[in-house]
Amino acid sequence: MIRKLLLIASAVAMPVGFIAATAGTASAGKVIDPTLAPATASCTTSGGTLTFKVPIGIVTPGGYVAPAKNKGNQIKIAGVTLTCTSSVVAGSFTGTASGKIKTTHVGQDPATFYSCVSLVGVAPAPGATLSGSLKIKWSPPVGQKFASSKSVTGISSVLGGVDGGGHGTFTIPGNPGTGFISGSFPGADAGASSTSTTATALTEAQLATQCSATGGVTTIALGSGTSTLQ
Length: 230
Known about the structure:
By secondary structure, the protein is an alpha+beta fold. The chain has two domains: about 1-30; about 35-230. The protein has helices at about 1-25, 110-115, 205-210, and strands at about 40-45, 50-55, 75-85, 95-105, 120-125, 130-140, 150-155, 160, 165-170, 180-185, 195-205, 215-230. The N and C termini lie far apart (about 70 Å). The model is unreliable at about 1-30 (pLDDT under 50).
Protein backbone atom coordinates (compact mmCIF):
# COMPACT_ATOMS: atom_id res chain seq x y z
CA MET A 1 0.00 0.00 0.00
CA ILE A 2 2.81 2.41 0.89
CA ARG A 3 4.57 1.64 -2.39
CA LYS A 4 1.38 2.27 -4.34
CA LEU A 5 0.90 5.66 -2.64
CA LEU A 6 4.50 6.64 -3.49
CA LEU A 7 3.96 5.73 -7.17
CA ILE A 8 0.79 7.83 -7.30
CA ALA A 9 2.58 10.81 -5.66
CA SER A 10 5.44 10.50 -8.15
CA ALA A 11 3.03 10.45 -11.09
CA VAL A 12 1.35 13.63 -9.83
CA ALA A 13 4.62 15.45 -9.11
CA MET A 14 6.17 14.71 -12.52
CA PRO A 15 3.86 16.90 -14.64
CA VAL A 16 4.08 19.67 -12.07
CA GLY A 17 7.86 19.62 -12.30
CA PHE A 18 7.67 19.49 -16.09
CA ILE A 19 5.40 22.55 -16.14
CA ALA A 20 7.74 24.46 -13.84
CA ALA A 21 10.75 23.63 -16.00
CA THR A 22 8.91 24.63 -19.16
CA ALA A 23 7.84 27.93 -17.62
CA GLY A 24 11.41 28.65 -16.61
CA THR A 25 12.63 28.03 -20.15
CA ALA A 26 9.97 30.29 -21.65
CA SER A 27 10.68 33.15 -19.26
CA ALA A 28 14.36 32.96 -20.12
CA GLY A 29 13.61 33.64 -23.80
CA LYS A 30 13.95 37.04 -25.46
CA VAL A 31 11.10 39.52 -25.31
CA ILE A 32 9.70 40.07 -28.79
CA ASP A 33 9.27 43.82 -29.32
CA PRO A 34 6.64 44.62 -31.98
CA THR A 35 7.93 48.20 -32.23
CA LEU A 36 11.16 47.11 -33.94
CA ALA A 37 11.56 46.80 -37.74
CA PRO A 38 9.43 47.06 -39.81
CA ALA A 39 7.13 48.93 -37.37
CA THR A 40 6.19 52.55 -38.16
CA ALA A 41 4.48 55.37 -36.26
CA SER A 42 2.60 58.53 -37.24
CA CYS A 43 2.75 61.43 -34.81
CA THR A 44 1.76 65.02 -34.20
CA THR A 45 4.24 67.24 -32.36
CA SER A 46 3.76 70.20 -30.06
CA GLY A 47 5.84 72.57 -27.98
CA GLY A 48 9.55 72.52 -27.40
CA THR A 49 12.42 74.92 -28.00
CA LEU A 50 15.57 75.41 -30.05
CA THR A 51 18.37 77.03 -28.05
CA PHE A 52 21.50 78.39 -29.73
CA LYS A 53 24.78 78.34 -27.80
CA VAL A 54 25.89 81.42 -29.78
CA PRO A 55 23.02 83.88 -30.44
CA ILE A 56 22.05 84.34 -34.08
CA GLY A 57 20.69 87.49 -35.68
CA ILE A 58 20.61 89.93 -38.57
CA VAL A 59 23.32 92.57 -38.51
CA THR A 60 21.80 96.07 -38.48
CA PRO A 61 23.13 99.51 -37.44
CA GLY A 62 22.66 99.76 -33.67
CA GLY A 63 21.23 96.24 -33.57
CA TYR A 64 22.65 92.74 -33.67
CA VAL A 65 26.44 92.43 -33.74
CA ALA A 66 27.89 89.11 -34.90
CA PRO A 67 30.72 87.45 -32.93
CA ALA A 68 34.22 88.44 -33.97
CA LYS A 69 35.15 84.83 -34.81
CA ASN A 70 33.29 81.92 -36.36
CA LYS A 71 33.76 78.98 -34.01
CA GLY A 72 30.69 77.03 -35.05
CA ASN A 73 27.45 76.66 -33.13
CA GLN A 74 25.46 74.17 -31.12
CA ILE A 75 21.67 73.93 -31.13
CA LYS A 76 19.81 72.23 -28.29
CA ILE A 77 16.37 70.75 -28.89
CA ALA A 78 14.19 70.20 -25.82
CA GLY A 79 10.64 69.58 -24.65
CA VAL A 80 9.02 68.42 -27.90
CA THR A 81 5.94 66.25 -27.20
CA LEU A 82 4.83 63.58 -29.67
CA THR A 83 1.37 62.01 -29.72
CA CYS A 84 1.42 58.90 -31.91
CA THR A 85 -0.39 55.90 -33.32
CA SER A 86 0.99 52.71 -34.80
CA SER A 87 -0.52 49.55 -36.28
CA VAL A 88 1.53 47.47 -33.82
CA VAL A 89 0.36 49.32 -30.70
CA ALA A 90 -3.15 49.22 -29.23
CA GLY A 91 -4.15 52.83 -28.58
CA SER A 92 -2.27 56.10 -28.87
CA PHE A 93 0.97 56.77 -27.01
CA THR A 94 3.30 59.68 -26.34
CA GLY A 95 6.97 60.52 -26.46
CA THR A 96 9.28 63.35 -25.43
CA ALA A 97 12.06 64.41 -27.80
CA SER A 98 15.34 66.15 -27.06
CA GLY A 99 18.71 66.38 -28.75
CA LYS A 100 21.66 68.42 -30.00
CA ILE A 101 22.95 69.60 -33.36
CA LYS A 102 26.47 70.84 -34.11
CA THR A 103 27.16 72.95 -37.17
CA THR A 104 30.35 74.47 -38.60
CA HIS A 105 31.47 76.34 -41.69
CA VAL A 106 35.21 76.90 -41.59
CA GLY A 107 36.22 80.16 -43.21
CA GLN A 108 32.73 81.67 -43.54
CA ASP A 109 32.49 85.19 -42.13
CA PRO A 110 30.66 85.35 -38.76
CA ALA A 111 27.96 87.78 -39.96
CA THR A 112 26.88 85.21 -42.55
CA PHE A 113 27.35 82.08 -40.45
CA TYR A 114 25.40 83.41 -37.45
CA SER A 115 22.68 85.04 -39.56
CA CYS A 116 19.01 84.14 -39.00
CA VAL A 117 18.73 84.00 -42.79
CA SER A 118 20.80 80.81 -42.72
CA LEU A 119 17.83 79.04 -41.11
CA VAL A 120 16.05 79.05 -44.48
CA GLY A 121 17.00 76.47 -47.12
CA VAL A 122 18.92 73.22 -46.74
CA ALA A 123 21.67 73.04 -44.15
CA PRO A 124 24.51 72.25 -44.27
CA ALA A 125 25.42 74.47 -47.19
CA PRO A 126 28.40 73.52 -49.39
CA GLY A 127 31.55 73.64 -47.28
CA ALA A 128 29.64 73.33 -44.00
CA THR A 129 29.02 70.42 -41.64
CA LEU A 130 25.96 69.51 -39.58
CA SER A 131 25.48 66.52 -37.31
CA GLY A 132 23.39 65.52 -34.34
CA SER A 133 20.65 63.29 -33.03
CA LEU A 134 17.17 63.46 -31.60
CA LYS A 135 16.23 61.03 -28.82
CA ILE A 136 12.57 60.18 -28.25
CA LYS A 137 11.66 58.63 -24.90
CA TRP A 138 8.40 56.71 -25.20
CA SER A 139 5.50 56.41 -22.76
CA PRO A 140 3.46 53.35 -23.88
CA PRO A 141 -0.30 53.08 -23.36
CA VAL A 142 -1.44 52.02 -19.88
CA GLY A 143 -0.85 48.32 -19.33
CA GLN A 144 1.63 47.99 -22.21
CA LYS A 145 5.42 47.99 -22.36
CA PHE A 146 7.91 48.64 -25.15
CA ALA A 147 11.05 46.50 -24.89
CA SER A 148 12.84 49.36 -26.66
CA SER A 149 11.81 52.47 -24.73
CA LYS A 150 13.33 55.02 -27.12
CA SER A 151 14.01 55.93 -30.72
CA VAL A 152 17.13 57.78 -31.84
CA THR A 153 16.92 59.81 -35.04
CA GLY A 154 20.18 60.81 -36.70
CA ILE A 155 20.32 64.39 -38.00
CA SER A 156 22.59 65.13 -40.96
CA SER A 157 20.56 67.85 -42.73
CA VAL A 158 17.74 70.31 -41.97
CA LEU A 159 15.41 72.16 -44.33
CA GLY A 160 14.17 75.58 -43.18
CA GLY A 161 11.17 77.28 -44.74
CA VAL A 162 7.87 79.10 -44.15
CA ASP A 163 4.38 77.54 -43.98
CA GLY A 164 1.08 78.93 -45.23
CA GLY A 165 0.48 80.76 -41.96
CA GLY A 166 3.77 82.65 -42.15
CA HIS A 167 5.48 80.58 -39.48
CA GLY A 168 8.99 79.27 -39.88
CA THR A 169 9.36 75.52 -40.39
CA PHE A 170 12.12 72.99 -39.82
CA THR A 171 12.13 69.64 -41.61
CA ILE A 172 14.39 66.71 -40.70
CA PRO A 173 16.03 65.39 -42.78
CA GLY A 174 16.55 68.32 -45.11
CA ASN A 175 17.61 65.95 -47.87
CA PRO A 176 14.74 63.43 -48.40
CA GLY A 177 15.59 59.76 -48.03
CA THR A 178 18.61 60.29 -45.79
CA GLY A 179 16.99 59.75 -42.38
CA PHE A 180 18.12 57.16 -39.83
CA ILE A 181 16.35 55.64 -36.83
CA SER A 182 17.57 53.13 -34.26
CA GLY A 183 15.36 51.63 -31.57
CA SER A 184 11.58 51.69 -31.93
CA PHE A 185 9.70 52.32 -35.20
CA PRO A 186 12.59 52.23 -37.73
CA GLY A 187 10.31 51.04 -40.54
CA ALA A 188 11.65 48.67 -43.18
CA ASP A 189 14.61 50.89 -44.16
CA ALA A 190 16.08 51.91 -40.77
CA GLY A 191 14.26 55.23 -40.93
CA ALA A 192 15.69 56.39 -44.27
CA SER A 193 12.24 57.52 -45.42
CA SER A 194 11.27 59.10 -42.10
CA THR A 195 10.43 62.81 -41.97
CA SER A 196 9.48 65.41 -39.38
CA THR A 197 8.31 69.00 -39.88
CA THR A 198 7.77 71.45 -37.02
CA ALA A 199 6.59 75.06 -37.21
CA THR A 200 7.82 77.89 -35.02
CA ALA A 201 5.40 79.42 -32.51
CA LEU A 202 6.14 82.92 -33.86
CA THR A 203 5.71 84.06 -37.45
CA GLU A 204 8.64 84.74 -39.73
CA ALA A 205 8.04 88.49 -39.36
CA GLN A 206 8.07 88.29 -35.55
CA LEU A 207 11.28 86.26 -35.61
CA ALA A 208 12.89 88.77 -37.97
CA THR A 209 12.19 91.54 -35.45
CA GLN A 210 13.85 89.53 -32.70
CA CYS A 211 16.80 88.71 -34.96
CA SER A 212 17.44 92.43 -35.51
CA ALA A 213 17.56 93.20 -31.77
CA THR A 214 20.90 93.85 -30.08
CA GLY A 215 21.10 90.47 -28.40
CA GLY A 216 19.84 88.53 -31.39
CA VAL A 217 18.03 85.23 -30.80
CA THR A 218 19.07 82.57 -28.31
CA THR A 219 15.82 80.57 -28.17
CA ILE A 220 13.10 79.81 -30.70
CA ALA A 221 9.81 78.42 -29.39
CA LEU A 222 8.26 75.65 -31.45
CA GLY A 223 4.56 75.21 -32.20
CA SER A 224 2.90 72.19 -33.83
CA GLY A 225 4.01 69.76 -36.49
CA THR A 226 3.97 66.20 -37.79
CA SER A 227 6.43 63.34 -37.65
CA THR A 228 6.46 60.01 -39.44
CA LEU A 229 8.82 57.33 -38.18
CA GLN A 230 9.31 54.78 -40.94
